[in-house]
Design goal:
The complex is a heterodimer. Chain A is mostly helical. Chain A contains seven helices and two strands. In chain A, a hairpin with a 2-residue loop joins strand 1 and strand 2. Chain A is globular. Chain B contains 15 helices and 18 strands. In chain B, strand 15 and strand 16 form a beta hairpin. The relative contact order of chain B is 0.21. Chain B starts with a strand and ends with a helix. Classes of the chains: A mainly alpha, B alpha/beta. At the A-B interface, helix 3, helix 6 and strand 2 of A face strand 11, helix 14 and strand 17 of B.
């Protein structure tokens, strides 16, 4: 499993963010393509397009939907399985047409939610 | 041998076995097949060996519908024809292009791709191409470093192109044609009328004129129209003294179904990691080959879309290019084709701004792994897209040809689906993301964008064994007229996604074979 330190092209500007938040706000492939500003813009557009109020808690739940939390006390630190889970979830999104178009970008819904989470955390 | 028709006594009578009207890639390819045969071949070229604006003016006409290039400049009216200014891109049509597709009205050829294979191989030689190999596997064995994107092969495949130098038929084959004893090339021999016998079941002669005021008659056993899709249709429509709708036009099909390739920058591909894309970029070294991303037959069926391909251009360069439709707008084809596609800056402050933007762009994250995706899409056969005659006549008395380029929304819908599919597949492969350009983002927006075309003129005398569906039969013979044939891309019932030159040369060689057998 590739080290997460190598895979983090940028970090949240919130100095209190946990490793978990870093993983949740980092759509991995997208973060190799886009800078922070563009990730934020995508996140903001995603929220703007929804007809409902979204908060960080709700987004976190959406992003982690399907993740089997066996021991929640380790959630904040034991992020490697979450990283793997999200990588597979994004691939599964594309496989099953769980895709969204934001500002022209053809994205997995999960990675769009991650962008939105990043936007809210840094707002 | 070569004869300048301006120097003949007027009212000369010229006679041969085969009369080929037009000396472009099609006409010359046919003539080459007759060298050292017992047949006397009359090859008629309306221009000379070089550009002549007075002759080129004969091609002027109006365009309506989707914006198109000037009629005068999208073809060349001298020996060699449009091959004297083409780009060299060659690829055969795909199997699906020949098939009847229930989601594409008027689709289906009366021949299959298999029927053309022997002729494709010969066409490769005429066009100075390599072997007739268009599978990626073959080229990977020649160049092991060619690496395709790891996409699902059942959905996306790599369609290969080869580059001709480009072969300019007028330059390459001039001496060969002139030295051939049985080929009689007449320059400045514009066909202005085709005359049939009384019941119009066969052609008796054609009338030829030039700006020196000379008129001649040409008789032959077989006549082959090879002036390009626009001019072939024009001549059939204009030869209307015996049949008011023109020759071969009992079912009002001549000139209809004009097709081009709607081409346009459509999306961006941003790769997440640096990887070799040499397979997809414009080839600088030999062998000059390239792949474009294409959709498999099964996926086209499932999505009910047209055939199209996407090519890659580094985004950093592509952002500074103008489109062909913007660039090739001069009525003089020599000027048009030499116009630069890169944006020209005359003003000092524009140059400063450009430099500043270049520096900003170089700092843009990921730009070195970003590519413009450019589509070449098949145009759906559409009877409203057509060549018609104008009331105005050219300086030799032939009604001018006008073009109404009618493009439906099917093409745009297919383009959108193609790039959505690519976006999905690149996502599954997790190697990058696709960003649609603005004109594709709203599915409800069916307004056509400003497509370019490739100067590909296709479909105006389409092929079908049913005279109610086509102008020519599967042997390119005009229905109802036993010695009149049409050569070239005007006979294609569908356009496919590939540039037409390789296929039109193959079809022309096939036609030459057929006419030899029956003469």
């Amino acid at each position: 499993m590739t080290s997460m330190a190598v895979l983090l092209p940028f970090t949240s500007c919130n100095s209190d963010s946990s490793d978990l938040n870093s993983i949740l706000t980092l759509p991995i492939t997208l973060s190799y393509i886009l800078d922070k500003e563009k990730i934020t813009e995508i996140g903001e557009s995603y929220i703007g397009d929804l007809q409902e109020n979204i908060n960080q808690k709700y987004l976190k739940k959406l992003i982690l939907d399907g993740y089997d939390i066996k021991d929640s006390s380790n959630l904040s630190t034991d992020t490697a399985p979450i990283f793997d889970f999200l990588t597979q979830k994004i691939k599964h999104d594309f496989d099953t047409n769980n895709i969204i178009l934001i500002d022209g970008w053809i994205l997995s819904k999960t990675e769009a939610q991650q962008c939105a989470y990043y936007f809210l955390i840094n707002k | 041998m070569h004869i300048d028709a301006r120097k003949l006594d007027s009212n000369s009578r010229i006679q041969g076995d085969i009369c080929i009207i037009g000396a472009g890639a099609s006409g010359i390819s046919i003539a080459l097949e007759y060298i050292n045969t017992p047949y006397k071949v009359i090859l008629l070229e309306g221009g000379g060996f070089k550009y002549d604006d007075k002759v080129q003016n004969l091609y002027k006409g109006e365009t309506t519908g989707q914006k198109y290039y000037p009629m005068k400049s999208s073809r060349l009216h001298f020996f060699g024809g449009a091959s004297q200014h083409w780009g060299g891109m060659c690829s055969p049509l795909d199997d699906i292009d020949f098939k009847k597709r229930d989601w594409v009205e008027y689709s289906g050829w009366p021949i299959s791709k298999k029927d053309l294979i022997p002729y494709y191989k010969k066409a490769q030689i005429n066009l100075d191409l390599g072997p007739f190999e268009y599978n990626l596997d073959y080229w990977q064995k020649q160049i092991p470093s060619l690496t395709p994107f790891p996409l699902n092969k059942n959905i996306i495949w790599n369609k290969m192109w080869q580059w001709s130098p480009p072969t300019q038929f007028g330059t390459k084959y001039k001496d060969t044609i002139i030295k051939a004893k049985n080929i009689h090339l007449y320059t400045y021999a514009n066909v202005v009328d085709i005359s049939a016998i009384e019941n119009i079941s066969s052609i008796e002669e054609v009338t030829v004129k030039n700006h020196a005021g000379k008129t001649h008659k040409v008789k032959a056993k077989q006549f082959i129209l090879a002036c390009g899709a626009i001019q072939n249709a024009r001549l059939l429509l204009a030869s209307n003294s015996q049949s008011k709708n023109g020759l071969g036009n009992e079912n009002d099909l001549v000139g209809r179904f004009f097709m081009e390739h709607p081409e346009i920058n459509s999306a961006e591909l941003w790769l997440s990691n640096l990887q070799s894309v040499d397979l997809y970029l414009f080839p600088e070294k030999k062998p000059k080959i390239r792949a474009e991303l294409a959709i498999t037959e099964k996926t086209q069926r499932d999505l009910k879309i047209l055939n199209g391909t996407a090519s890659l251009i580094p985004l950093r360069e592509a952002r500074h290019y103008k489109t062909n439709m913007e660039t090739w707008q001069d009525e003089n084809p020599i000027i048009s084709h030499s116009n630069k596609r890169s944006i020209q800056l005359d003003n000092y402050w524009d140059k400063v701004k450009f430099k500043v933007n270049q520096i900003k762009e170089s700092q843009e994250k990921g730009i070195d792994k970003a590519y413009q995706l450019y589509v070449r899409m098949e145009q759906v056969p559409n009877p409203l897209s057509r060549i018609t005659l104008d009331n105005e006549k050219d300086s030799l008395g032939v009604p001018r040809a006008n073009l109404n380029w009618d493009v439906t929304s099917f093409e745009k819908d297919s383009i959108r689906k193609l790039f959505e599919l690519l976006g999905k597949q690149f996502g599954i492969a997790d190697i990058g993301r696709v960003k649609l350009l603005e004109f594709l983002r709203d599915k409800k927006d069916s307004k056509n964008p400003p497509y370019s075309g490739g100067w590909h003129h296709i479909g105006t005398t389409r092929m079908s064994n049913d005279p109610k569906q086509g102008v020519v039969d599967s042997n390119c013979k005009v229905h109802g007229i036993n010695n009149l044939f049409v050569a070239g891309s005007g006979c294609f019932p569908t356009s496919g996604a590939a540039n037409p030159t390789l296929t039109l040369v193959a079809l022309s060689i096939r036609l030459a074979d057929h006419v030899k057998r029956i003469t």
